[in-house]
Amino acid sequence: MPEHDTHEHDTYERLIALLDSSRIDYRLLDHEPEGATEAVCALRGHPASQAAKCIVLRVKVDRRTTRHVLAVVPGDRRVDLDAVRDLYAARYVGFSDPETAERLARSVPGTVLPFSFDPALEVVADPEVVAQPKLYFNAARLDRSLCLSGADYARLAKPRVERVAAATADVTPHH
C-alpha cells in the first residue's frame, strides 16, 4: 500500500473523530474522485463560492524564518499573496512545494483540508469562508466531501480570520 494512502486514511479518520467529538452537524457526500475545485463543485451540486479552496503557502518572514500557512479561500476566488505577505510582514510569499504541502497538510493535493493537524501549519481563512451557511471541501479523500456551516468550521478549526482572497479576475499575468 503506497504511503500516501495510509496518510490520507489517517487524516480522514482524524477529521471525522474531531467532528464527532465536537458534536458538530455535518454531512458526508460520496462522488467520483476529483480534486479540481470547479469539477468537484459540479459533482457535489453547489456554487464554487461555497467550496473551501485550501492552499499551502511558504511565507519567508526573514532570512532565517520561514512559516507555512494554509490559506483557505472561497472556491471561486484565488489567494491574494500580497495580502498574506502584508499579514505576516514577510519578504516573500509563494506556493509551497508539493512534498512540503503534502507532509504538512497530511493529504494529497486536491484533498487538503481547511484544518491543520500539524503545529507547523497555521490556518488563515478568509471571512467569506467562515460566513458560508454551507461550506464544502474534500474530506482528505478525492472521492468523499464534507459539508458543514462556516460558523462550525471556524469554531472547530480556529483559523486566523483575515482577508486573503482576491477575485479571480484580479490575476495579472507576470511577464
TrEMBL record:
Pfam families (UniProt xref): tRNA_edit
Molecular function GO terms recorded: aminoacyl-tRNA deacylase activity
Domain YbaK/aminoacyl-tRNA synthetase-associated: from-to ranges: 31-156
Entry superkingdom: Bacteria
InterPro entries: YbaK/aa-tRNA-synt-asso_dom_sf (IPR036754), YbaK/aa-tRNA-synth-assoc-dom (IPR007214)
Protein name, per record: YbaK/aminoacyl-tRNA synthetase-associated domain-containing protein
Species of provenance: Streptomyces davaonensis (strain DSM 101723 / JCM 4913 / KCC S-0913 / 768)
